[in-house]
């Protein structure tokens, strides 16, 4: 369950990789990978173009061409592994048709203020949690019965688990700090949010729409007569715009006579702001969908999202799976001293040894 009065992301910095495989026959790549630093995509691959490409200038300027060659080979290997996994799971669950997905997310989060670190490693199947690596016991666990067989199988490979532990406890953070140094001017920028109150009609919830901000972490809260409100509110997902910034929403579910009688406010807290943005819920401040200004602003938002559709779909797919972030794939390090060592290493292991497939 999502709490209403918390930061969308408590980590100051993060490095995450998301892999998604889908069954063939739909108008979407069968396999995609996205790498993100501080939730900003910096690498991308899909099975249509069969090439790993940079998504930011800072990574393009700071790595050599063999970086992309190596990652392309890793993604090609992962593509085969994950496509095979879909077939294995469909057979295991007696599924003969339909659209099915395997997703994987791994990486790390680091709070540079407290020093707290967290590793991430989990799989999803058909939009639900499948297996997760427990960071305390270093064993794979299955949230539901469908992932039990895969968890039991993978827990029989202590060498692989030890490698995961080393990567998630140390190497991931080393590379995160390296990437942060590469993209310091971009990743440490501060972009102020624009905040609007929107309502479809007089009986609809009032939406506090926050857009155009960077970094991703933001706090959106509601107050009634100066007191924090933790009921009748619904926090939406934070999703990327097409321009490197983010947007989110929070909905106030009270009747018009209530917010007209009491003093409700939407408060936005973000690193870019010296003072919080506070918008009182009044008829004057609420924009209707019928307002030209509101329609124009929403058109810009939609246009930004559509401008990077494939990339954003790959990221949003994870958000929809885990209600915050969740995901996909793996890689290699035994053979190369390289930023994506874990991803490449595990992919090659899985590619060579079928028992590592789901």
TrEMBL record:
* Keywords annotated in UniProt: Glycoprotein, Immunoglobulin domain, Membrane, Transmembrane, Transmembrane helix
Please list the residue ranges annotated as the Ig-like domain: 193-282
Q: Which GO terms describe its biological process?
A: immune response
Name any one Pfam family assigned in the record. MHC_I
* Signal peptide interval: none
Name the residues that span the membrane. Answer: 298-321
**One Gene Ontology cellular component:** external side of plasma membrane
Judging by the UniProt lineage, the source's domain of life is: Eukaryota
Membership in a protein family: Belongs to the MHC class I family.
The protein depicted here goes by the name Ig-like domain-containing protein
């Amino acid at each position: 369950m999502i709490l209403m009065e918390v930061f969308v992301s408590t980590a100051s910095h993060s490095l995450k990789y998301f892999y998604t495989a889908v069954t063939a026959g739909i108008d979407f790549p069968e396999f995609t990978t996205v790498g993100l630093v501080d939730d900003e995509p910096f690498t991308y691959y899909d099975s249509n173009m069969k090439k790993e490409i940079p998504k930011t200038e800072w990574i393009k300027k700071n790595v050599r061409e063999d970086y992309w060659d190596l990652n392309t080979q890793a993604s090609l290997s992962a593509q085969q592994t994950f496509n095979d996994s879909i077939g294995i799971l469909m057979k295991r669950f007696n599924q003969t048709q339909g659209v099915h997905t395997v997703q994987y997310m791994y990486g790390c989060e680091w709070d540079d203020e407290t020093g707290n670190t967290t590793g991430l490693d989990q799989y999803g199947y058909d939009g639900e949690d499948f297996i997760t690596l427990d960071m305390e016991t270093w064993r794979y666990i299955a949230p539901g019965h469908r992932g039990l067989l895969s968890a039991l199988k993978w827990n029989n490979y202590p060498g692989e688990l030890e490698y995961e532990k080393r990567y998630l406890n140390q190497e991931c953070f080393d590379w995160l700090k390296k990437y942060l140094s590469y993209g310091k001017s971009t990743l440490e920028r501060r972009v102020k949010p624009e905040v609007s109150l929107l309502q479809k009609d007089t009986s609809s919830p009032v939406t506090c729409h926050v857009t155009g901000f960077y970094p991703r972490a933001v706090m959106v809260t509601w107050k009634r007569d100066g007191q924090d409100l933790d009921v009748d509110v619904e926090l939406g997902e934070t999703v990327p715009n097409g321009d490197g910034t983010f947007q989110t929403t929070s909905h106030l579910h009270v009747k018009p006579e209530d917010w007209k009688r009491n003093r409700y406010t939407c408060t936005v807290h973000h690193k870019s702001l010296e003072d919080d943005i506070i918008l009182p819920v009044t008829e004057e401040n609420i924009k209707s969908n019928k307002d030209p200004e509101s329609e124009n602003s929403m058109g810009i938002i939609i246009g930004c999202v559509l401008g990077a559709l494939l990339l954003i779909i790959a990221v949003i797919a994870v958000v929809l799976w885990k209600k915050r972030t969740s995901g996909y794939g793996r890689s290699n390090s035994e053979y190369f001293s390289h930023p994506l060592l874990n991803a490449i290493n595990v992919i090659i292991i899985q590619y060579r040894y079928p028992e590592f497939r789901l």
